[in-house]
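Database export, one record per block. Field names are fixed; values are copied verbatim from the stored entry.
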Amino acid sequence: GSHVSAADTSMQGAIVDGLNPAFESKILALDLLLYVLSHTSTPSMLNSGPQFAYAVRHYLCVSLLKNCTSTNTTVVNLSLRLFVPLIRHYRSHLKTEIEAFVTN
């Protein structure tokens, strides 16, 4: 018969539990973003340049909106928690995006 290693069964279990490498990377990225947005002063973020504001508007906000429809509660929770510092720090720059969060 065929031999199944412990690594094979743990990987299958991880995929069934939704803990594949892509998922783990997403959780790590959301955790890191939450930490940065929660521990950085508003003036330094706002003065970080137009590229940062562009990335927040066109990548982070779009990603967070998609994440809020995830079936995984960890992803939804982290995405909603990221929304709070975004409103706090970028309210004036993200009016359209904030409206999309509230209405969707």
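Remark 1: The helical segments are 6-16, 21-39, 42-46, 50-67, 73-90, 95-103.
Remark 2: The two ends are 53 Å apart (CA to CA).
End of record.
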